[in-house]
Amino acid sequence: MLSVNVEQSVKVEFCVKFGEIAAEMYDLLKKIYGDRCLSRTQVFEWFKGFKEGREEIGDDQRPGRPSTSKTDVNIEKVGKSFRQNRCLSIGADAELINIDEKTVRQILHNNSNMEKVCSKMVPRLLSPERKEMRMYIRADFLQNIKKPHFLDSVLTCDESWFFSIRTRK
User: Fold this and answer.
1) pLDDT higher for 42 or 118?
2) What are phi and psi of 154, to 5 degrees?
3) Which of 58, 109, 118 is nearest to 79 (CA)?
4) DSSP state of 87
5) Whole-angstrom Cα distance, residue 7 to residue 122?
6) Cβ(75)–Cβ(99) under 8 Å?
7) Please, which residues have CB within 8 angstroms of residue 99's CB and are 6 or more apart in sequence?
8) Whole-angstrom distance, CA of residue 104 vs CA of residue 113
9) Average pLDDT of the chain to the nearest whole number
10) Distance between CA atoms of 140 and 58, rounded to whole angstroms?
């Protein structure tokens, strides 16, 4: 199955050979493809290329070099740096390792299974120690809820935190 761009370029080539005008051809493609239609500029570039004798219907190869900063060595460096000091920003990590911030962010997200929460990258999965700590906190909280007048000892600060006032007996 052809991609939408290649499919549309075939139609542009056909219309050029048929003697159509570029503006009318764009309107036809817009009616057929709607939101998936090539931009007006792209249609006119394809039109011009076919009018000048272009034969290929696929996209041209784009010049440039492949990314060389997302290597196994750099993935290990980012992981090690992040485990040693989680307070470092992505920019500081990138500067230490000498690669760009976008690559560091991709490595943290895709390879290290991290996601951004607030302004820090945190693990998506809890460690066994954190799970155990949360279990104890929840058990303590459940015991406190069962006490009479528990809500009298809770002050709310905002929607995400609560503070308990310990009453003396």
Assistant:
1) 42
2) -110, 125
3) 109
4) T
5) 43
6) no
7) 69, 74
8) 13
9) 77
10) 65
Beta bridge partners of 162: 156
pTM above 0.85, yes or no: no
Q: 161 exposed, middle or buried (CB, 10 Å; 0-12, 13-18, 19+)? A: exposed
For tokens 């159509």, the residue is: 20
Is the dihedral angle over the CA atoms 45, 51, 57, 58 positive or is it negative? Answer: negative
The DSSP call for residue 63 is P
Instruction: Map tokens 């784009």 to a residue.
Output: 62
**Could you give the 3-state DSSP secondary structure of residue 99?**
coil
Could you tell me which residue, 35 or 150, shows the higher pLDDT?
35
Q: Tens of pLDDT along 88-139?
A: 788 888 888 888 888 888 888 888 777 666 656 666 677 888 889 988 988 8
Q: Which domains does the chain have, with CATH numbers?
A: 4-51 (1.10.10), 72-123 (1.10.10), 128-164 (no CATH)
